[in-house]
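Running log. JK asked me to keep both predictions on one page so they can be read side by side. First protein, sequence followed by its tokens:
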Amino acid sequence: MALHDLINGIIRELFVAEERRLDKAIVKLEEANSFQQRATLDGFLINGVYYRPHGRRTRSPPDNPMLHFDLWAKGELLVKDRKTVDGQKQLIRQALVNALEPAKTHQDYRDSLPECLVFAIPQLQRMSRTREEGCLIDDPRKREQFFKALPLMELFSVSRLLY
């Protein structure tokens, strides 16, 4: 499996609860927008970005109306929330690239991954740790970035179990 695919799989598993939460917010805004526009709408546009719940087939964005003016404040909160989640994903993704890129064996992957993320790779779950988390990161700046992202990784790994 390519490193890119491995990290994308971890990110997808890690953020399942956040994506579900954002989807619920999108559905609520979509329903309110439909009510305000007095039509059944399929998603909405705000700040030039098309929003709709994940996994739903829909028309292309130009056929869908902008978010109603009365809902812009809520829409702005959604946009801000989406940007925050995307930034957190990027921070974690970069930390994982730094940690896993030098790995050559399954044991390297197991040792370099934080304990909270081992769940995402079934082949590693039965292996024991022989070195500390992030052990393969030599660059001090990259190591600092990894440990800065670690609390976020822990937070999202727990939140996916709770929500």
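And the second, directly underneath as requested:
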Amino acid sequence: MRNMKTIAICALVTAISLAPFGVSANEEDDAIREQMERENPILSLADVLASEQFCGLNYNTAAVQIFIDKLNTPDDPDFTSILQTLTRSARIDNEKMTPSDKTAQCTQIVRIARGYGFTH
């Protein structure tokens, strides 16, 4: 499933970043995930990529490439494996959604994908 090193790093960063706001590291996964998304564009990108087919979208692959070029340096050997792990996990999460969850998820994914330049 998920790369344990990535999860540990994300959890540590989240716990440290949430501590000044009085939020414990034991909060629900959704709260932690939201904070990580704000701080970690790779996680947000993984959610958007994982939701392409789930939300009935068709991304401009050239735009995805440009986005990744801007997001990451070419000498980062872990980027691809981290992105693949997070994308795979997000796809599993998508499949567990209720119809209302899917509506909410896809509404936001459409907005984010448009903001990233992946759709029109």
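Observation for JK regarding the second prediction: Residues 28 and 34 are 10 Å apart (CA to CA).
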